[in-house]
């Protein structure tokens, strides 16, 4: 405000939220599809869930929940002009996001090793309900994974901007919006955990 | 319209580190509870899914995503979206029920 530059932080956040609701509807549609398929194939979904590693799913939940915390703490730090602390929190978030992807890649690699990947010959021999389960599993966790990569890229830029004072105590709406995106990625995972990993 | 008021008021309203750490602890406890009930059998698992998961998502929306500190417009945007999804969900299952 003191720079006499026109700024509308609320408008920026409203724009971000409007984008986020399109993301909610995107995943919401997949969740509704999942509900119907689970209703149609309850036993096959139970068997499919048993194939997944629940421990890795829970660990990744803890990783993402903590990364969400560190983003919101980075905003508190910026509001208090604690730049170094904000950078440390954002750096932790990036580290946790990468940890999530590494765990995810190990999990997917194990599935691939067992002949479970989209269009796999082994998958075609499974009952239709289990094929649907793994189809949804790869689609939804894959789409979520892409969102994690996008979120990490955005937060990487935010860290750069904090370091170069483009984001600072009197001007941090970009960080807030980047954080909003990251939290939504976390919320989607909150739903994926019980739907897939705890389904057995 | 109230942007100036907002930016001056907001400074006093900002929650501190403690608030968010408490929410994070609650999220961890709820995750533990969700994993716990999923071992008690199908009925408990489904009820856990339908109650604890939205509660966790609600905590993230309300605190981490700062909806608690926003005006009514953003809250309405989110509620209308969730309401729309709920309508589609209800429509689908009302159709399924009569097959």
Number of domains of chain A: 1
Net shape of chain B: flat
- Low-confidence runs of chain A: none
CATH fold topology of chain A: Four Helix Bundle (Hemerythrin (Met), subunit A)
Oligomeric composition of the shown chains: heterodimer
Count of distinct strands of chain B = 0
Shape of chain A: elongated
In total, how many domains does the architecture of chain B comprise?
2
Radius of gyration of chain A: 20 Å
Count of separate DSSP helical elements of chain B: 4
User: Structural class of the helix and strand makeup of chain B?
Assistant: mainly alpha
Low-pLDDT ranges of chain B: 1-11
For the record, the CATH class of chain A is Mainly Alpha
Q: What class do helices, strands and sheet pairing of chain A give?
A: mainly alpha
Taking all Cα atoms into account, the compactness measure Rg of chain B is 18 Å
Task: Tell me the greatest interface.
Answer: A-B, 43 and 46 residues
Portion of residues in beta strands of chain B equals: under 5%
CATH architecture of chain A: Up-down Bundle
Mean pLDDT of chain A: 94
List the helices and strands of chain A in order.
Answer: HHHHHHH
